[in-house]
Amino acid sequence: MPKSTEEVIRRLEEKLGKYYSGEQLKNGCDFIAHMRNTGIIPGIKQPNLFEYLGENVCVLVDWTIFWGDYTSTLLLDEYQDFPIDDDLKQFVWDNIHTCAHFHTKGKECGCGGQPGKSVSLFGKEFDNVCSSIIYFNEPDADTLQKVYQLTELWKRAIEVANSSDKNVVDNKDGG
User: Contact at 8 Å (CB) between 126 and 118?
Assistant: First the structure.
């Protein structure tokens, strides 16, 4: 078991280097560096699970990023002080991970969840959603920019959820 965050990061980067090269490797290492630079770090006991202020943010498996129902901040509409433009909403909606993506030869998706559930994200309803709700497989540099926006939103939601002053969330209508 790794003994430090630095060792976990080194191992994650080495693992990426075994399977990827070129731009994919660069993007994977950039993602890990971005997460670390923003205070979102992989756990020592669960090195693929990135956390912020003790809350789960996402999971990195090889070069796939998952946001799942283990995250306590899925009701993102609540955090209206963070700019959530239509582009970011559409980006999330386009990357909703339904259980059907992993059903092969009659097998369940293997992510540990029940077969699909209903989820609401940014005011839009989705059915048959996997427990890994949002999924990015081998994201390119442009996709990572949107992932970073989403990461900032998750950080803000965690900060608000952990704040003793719940009034830090502003209503868009000024109320």
Answer: yes
Beta-ladder partners of 19 = none
pLDDT in tens, 66-110: 877 544 444 555 555 666 788 888 998 898 877 754 444 444 555
Rg (CA), the chain: 17
* Residue 70 DSSP symbol: T
> Which of 150, 149, 134 is CA-nearest to residue 65?
134
Q: Which residue do the tokens 């990195």 mark? A: 60
Q: At 69, which helix (H) or strand (E)?
A: none
User: Minimal CA–CA distance to 96: which of 138, 62, 123, 131?
Assistant: 131
Predicted pLDDT at 100: 57
SS3 of residue 10 by DSSP? helix
Are 67 and 58 within 8 A, CB to CB?
yes
